[in-house]
C-alpha cells in the first residue's frame, strides 16, 4: 500500500529524517517509535506531504506521490488522512463539531445533500451522538475531541490514516477507549495505519510491525512480537528495558540497562553509527562505519552490524 | 504515630471559578511515614495535585483550603508556619522544569539563593556537591550556565538538585518524569532512588503512570474526583485490587503478559467537578454501581492493616 524509499527531510542543517525506507501493507498497523527528536513525527508529516521531502520517494497505492500537482494532491489527501496528538490545538474552536466533520466533504466535493447524514453517521461511528453536532470543541472533553478529530479524518473515506501520538494527551482510561475504537474502525473499514507514539506498551498492543527510530534513521524494524521478544539493536534493548511495567514483581525482577546522556540533536548527528555516543557496546569502528539496515533473518532488520 | 512525618486529615480544598465552586479535594485523609515512598495515582481532576498544593500552602488566590488538618512532624501547619518549612523541610518538584526555573538567572545563582534564604553556610561547596550528585558536571563550570543551556533531562536534574539541596525530610514529586523520554525517565527515577537511599527522606510520588508506581512506590493511594478510592501496599493495589476504579485503571493498559489482548477501558467521561454526584464520584462510570452509590458517599472498608477502600461493595462483599 505504501512504500517509502530513502526519505529525507532537512530543516536547514537539521537532519530531522535522514534516509528512511519502509513499506506498509494494506490493513496493517506499522508502529513508529523513538524518543523526542528522533524524527518519527516528521516522517509521518512528510509522508502525508505536510512537508516537502528533501530527498527520497513515497509510493502510495502504486503511484509516486513525491511530487504532485495541486489537483493530484487533493485526490491523494482523500486517500490518506492524519489524526493529531493535541485534541485541543487541532480543532478550530470557532467551528461546531458538525462543521469540523463536514469541512473535508466540502473540500473534496462530496454532494451537499449527503453531508448531514454522513456527519451524523460519522459522529455515531466514533461514539458521539448526532445531537452533539451543534456543540463547540470547548464543550467536549479531551477524549471526545479526539473522537471528533477521528470522525473528521474518516469523513472522506480514506484508505490510510497516520495517527500521530493520538492518545498521549489523554488520561489512561480514555486512551484505552480511543485505542479500542481505532482497532474496531480498522477492522470494519479495512484501514491501514501508521501509529506514531512514544508509549511502547501501547505500540506493542496495536501494531503488527514496529520501526524504531533514532536521530532520523530507522535502527530496527521487525514484526511486533519478534522485536519486543528479541530486540537486537542496543538502542532498542535499552529502550525496551526502560518501559515501566505495571506489575510490582516483574518490575523488581527485571534488569535495567540505563543509557547515559540524551539524544544529541538533529543539528549535530554523530558520525558513523549515530548511536555510538550512548551505546553500551560501542567499539572504535562504530564512529566511522556505515550503519545500514540489513536483514538478520525472519524479516528482522537491524542497523547494528554487531547485533 | 511518631512514625508519621506528614498527616492529612479530612482535607477539603475548593477552587472558585467563574463557572462556580470546583471541589478539587473533597475529604482526603492519609499519612506519610518516615523514609517511605507513597505513590498517588489518579487521572486529571482526581485532586492529586490540588492536595499537594494545599499541603504546601500554594493553592493560590482562587483556591481555598476549606477545612482539614495537616501536620508535619507532629506540628499543625497553617498558612504562616508552612512558609518556614517550604523549601527547607518539605520540597516539591514539578512536571515541567522549564516553567519552574528562572530563565534569566544562572543555575548556580538559583541554588545559592535557596541556601542563603535558609541560612546555610559553606554555600558554594554545597551547590557544587549537589550538582555533582545529580550528575551535572563539571559543576564548577556548569553552575554558571542558564537553564536554556541544558537539555530537558538535565533541567529536571537541576530541579531535583534545587529541591534536595537543603536536605528536606519530605519530597513531593508531582509527575517528575512525565515530560521526559523513557530512557531519560529511567535515569531520573534511578537518581531519585539513590538520593532517597543516602538521605532517608520520605517521598510522595504523584503520577498517572501505573508502571512508575509499580516500580517506585511502597504504598499507593488511588484518587478519583477529589477523593481517595483505595489505599494499600504496592502488592495489595496490584494483586488484591478492591475498588472497581483501580480495577478499571489496571485493565486500561496493555497486559505485559498478553500484549495483544483487547483493552477494557473505563467507559464514560472524566468526572465533572462542578456538578459532582451526591454519592461516590465514580458512580457514573462504575460497572458495579448500585442505587446507594448515587445517594451516599461510601465509608471506608478495611481489608488489612494497610489495605482499605471506599466503596459500597465493601458492605456487600466483606461486611
Give a nutshell description of this structure.
Chain A is of the alpha/beta class. Chain A has helices spanning 40-47, 70-79, 97-107, 115-125, 142-154, 172-189, 200-206, 224-229, 234-241, 248-253; strands at 2-11, 14-24, 29-33, 55-60, 63-64, 80-83, 160-164, 192-196, 209-214, 217-223, 294-295, 301-302. In chain A, helix 3 crosses helix 4 (115-125).
Q: How does this model look, in words?
A:
With 307 residues, chain A is of the alpha/beta class. Chain A has 2 domains: 2-207, 3-Layer(aba) Sandwich (Rossmann fold), CATH 3.40.50.300; 231-307, no CATH class. Helices cover 32% and strands 21% of the residues of chain A. Chain A contains 10 helices and 12 strands. Chain A has helices at 40-47, 70-79, 97-107, 115-125, 142-154, 172-189, 200-206, 224-229, 234-241, 248-253, and strands at residues 2-11, 14-24, 29-33, 55-60, 63-64, 80-83, 160-164, 192-196, 209-214, 217-223, 294-295, 301-302. In chain A, strands 6-7-8-3-9-10-12-11 form an 8-stranded mixed sheet, sandwiched between helices. In chain A, strands 2-1-4-5 form a 4-stranded antiparallel sheet, with helices on one face. In chain A, α6 (172-189) links the parallel β7 (160-164) and β8 (192-196). In chain A, α3 (97-107) packs parallel to α5 (142-154) and α4 (115-125) crosses α5. Chain A is globular and about 65 Å long. The relative contact order of chain A is 0.15. Chain B has 319 residues and is of the alpha/beta class. Chain B has a single domain (4-89, 166-318), classed as 3-Layer(aba) Sandwich (Rossmann fold), CATH 3.40.50.300. In chain B, 33% of the residues lie in helices and 25% in strands. Chain B has helices at residues 48-56, 82-85, 97-100, 107-117, 123-133, 139-142, 152-164, 182-199, 210-216, 234-239, 244-251, 291-295, 313-318; strands spanning 4-17, 20-33, 37-41, 63-72, 75-76, 90-93, 170-174, 202-207, 219-224, 227-233, 300-302, 308-310. In chain B, strands 6-7-8-3-9-10-12-11 form an 8-stranded mixed sheet, sandwiched between helices. The longest helix of chain B is centred in the middle third of the chain and has 18 residues, at 182-199. The interface between A and B is large, with 44 and 45 residues.
Amino acid at each position: 500500500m505504501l512504500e517509502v524509499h530513502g526519505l529525507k527531510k532537512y530543516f536547514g542543517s537539521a537532519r530531522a529524517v535522514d534516509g528512511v525506507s519502509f513499506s506498509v501493507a494494506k490493513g496493517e498497523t506499522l508502529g513508529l517509535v523513538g524518543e523526542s527528536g528522533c524524527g518519527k513525527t516528521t516522517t509521518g508529516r512528510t509522508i502525508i506531504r505536510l512537508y516537502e521531502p528533501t530527498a527520497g520517494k513515497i509510493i502510495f497505492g502504486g503511484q509516486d506521490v513525491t511530487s504532485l500537482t495541486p489537483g493530484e494532491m487533493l485526490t491523494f489527501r482523500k486517500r490518506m488522512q492524519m489524526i493529531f496528538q493535541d485534541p485541543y490545538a487541532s480543532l478550530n474552536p470557532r467551528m461546531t463539531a458538525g462543521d469540523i466533520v463536514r469541512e473535508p466533504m466540502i473540500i473534496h466535493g462530496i454532494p451537499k445533500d449527503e453531508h448531514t447524514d454522513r456527519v451524523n453517521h460519522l459522529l455515531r461511528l466514533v461514539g458521539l451522538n448526532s445531537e452533539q453536532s451543534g456543540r463547540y470543541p470547548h464543550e467536549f472533553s479531551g477524549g471526545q475531541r479526539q473522537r471528533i478529530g477521528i470522525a473528521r479524518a474518516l469523513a472522506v473515506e480514506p484508505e490510510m490514516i497516520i495517527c500521530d501520538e493520538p492518545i498521549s494527551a489523554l488520561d489512561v482510561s480514555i486512551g484505552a477507549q480511543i485505542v479500542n475504537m481505532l482497532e474496531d474502525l480498522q477492522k470494519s473499514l479495512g484501514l491501514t495505519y501508521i501509529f506514531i507514539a512514544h508509549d511502547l506498551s501501547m505500540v506493542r498492543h496495536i501494531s503488527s510491525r514496529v520501526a524504531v527510530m533514532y536521530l532520523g534513521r530507522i535502527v530496527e524494524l521487525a514484526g511486533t512480537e519478534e522485536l519486543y521478544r528479541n530486540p537486537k539493536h542496543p538502542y532498542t534493548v535499552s529502550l525496551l528495558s526502560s518501559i515501566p511495567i505495571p506489575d510490582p514483581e516483574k518490575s523488581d525482577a527485571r534488569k535495567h540497562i540505563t543509557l547515559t546522556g540524551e539524544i544529541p540533536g538533529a543539528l549535530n548527528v554523530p558520525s558513523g553509527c549515530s548511536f555510538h555516543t550512548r551505546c553500551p557496546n560501542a567499539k572504535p569502528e562504530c564512529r566511522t562505519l556505515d550503519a545500514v539496515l540489513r536483514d538478520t533473518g525472519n524479516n528482522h532488520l537491524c542497523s547494528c552490524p554487531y547485533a | 504515630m511518631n512514625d508519621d512525618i506528614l498527616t492529612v486529615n479530612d482535607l477539603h480544598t475548593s477552587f472558585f471559578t467563574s463557572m462556580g465552586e470546583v471541589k478539587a479535594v473533597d475529604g482526603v485523609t492519609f499519612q506519610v511515614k518516615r523514609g517511605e515512598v507513597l505513590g498517588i495515582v489518579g487521572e486529571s481532576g482526581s485532586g492529586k495535585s490540588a492536595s499537594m498544593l494545599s499541603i504546601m500552602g500554594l493553592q493560590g488566590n482562587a483556591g481555598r483550603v476549606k477545612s482539614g488538618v495537616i501536620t508535619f512532624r507532629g506540628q499543625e501547619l497553617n498558612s504562616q508556619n508552612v512558609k518556614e518549612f517550604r523549601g527547607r523541610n518539605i520540597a516539591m518538584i514539578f512536571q515541567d522544569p522549564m516553567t519552574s526555573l528562572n530563565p534569566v538567572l544562572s543555575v548556580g545563582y538559583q541554588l545559592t539563593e535557596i541556601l542563603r534564604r535558609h541560612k546555610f553556610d559553606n554555600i558554594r561547596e554545597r551547590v557544587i556537591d549537589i550538582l555533582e550528585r545529580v550528575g551535572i558536571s563539571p559543576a564548577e563550570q556548569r553552575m554558571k550556565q542558564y537553564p536554556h543551556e541544558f537539555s530537558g533531562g538535565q533541567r529536571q536534574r537541576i530541579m531535583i538538585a534545587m529541591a534536595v539541596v537543603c536536605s528536606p525530610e519530605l519530597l513531593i514529586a508531582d509527575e517528575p518524569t512525565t515530560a521526559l523520554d523513557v530512557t531519560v525517565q529511567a535515569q531520573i527515577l534511578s537518581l531519585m532512588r539513590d538520593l532517597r537511599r543516602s538521605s532517608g527522606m520520605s517521598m510522595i510520588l504523584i503520577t498517572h503512570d501505573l508502571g512508575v508506581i509499580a516500580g517506585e512506590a511502597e504504598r499507593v493511594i488511588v484518587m478519583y474526583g477529589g477523593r481517595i478510592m483505595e489505599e494499600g501496599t504496592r502488592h495489595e493495589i496490584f494483586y488484591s485490587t478492591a475498588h472497581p476504579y483501580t480495577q478499571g485503571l489496571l485493565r486500561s493498559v496493555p497486559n505485559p503478559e498478553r500484549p495483544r489482548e483487547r483493552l477494557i477501558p473505563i467507559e464514560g467521561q472524566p468526572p465533572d467537578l462542578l456538578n459532582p454526584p451526591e454519592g461516590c464520584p465514580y458512580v457514573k462510570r462504575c460497572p458495579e454501581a448500585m442505587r446507594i452509590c448515587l445517594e451516599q458517599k461510601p465509608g471506608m472498608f478495611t481489608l488489612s492493616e494497610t489495605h482499605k477502600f471506599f466503596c459500597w461493595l465493601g458492605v456487600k462483599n466483606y461486611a
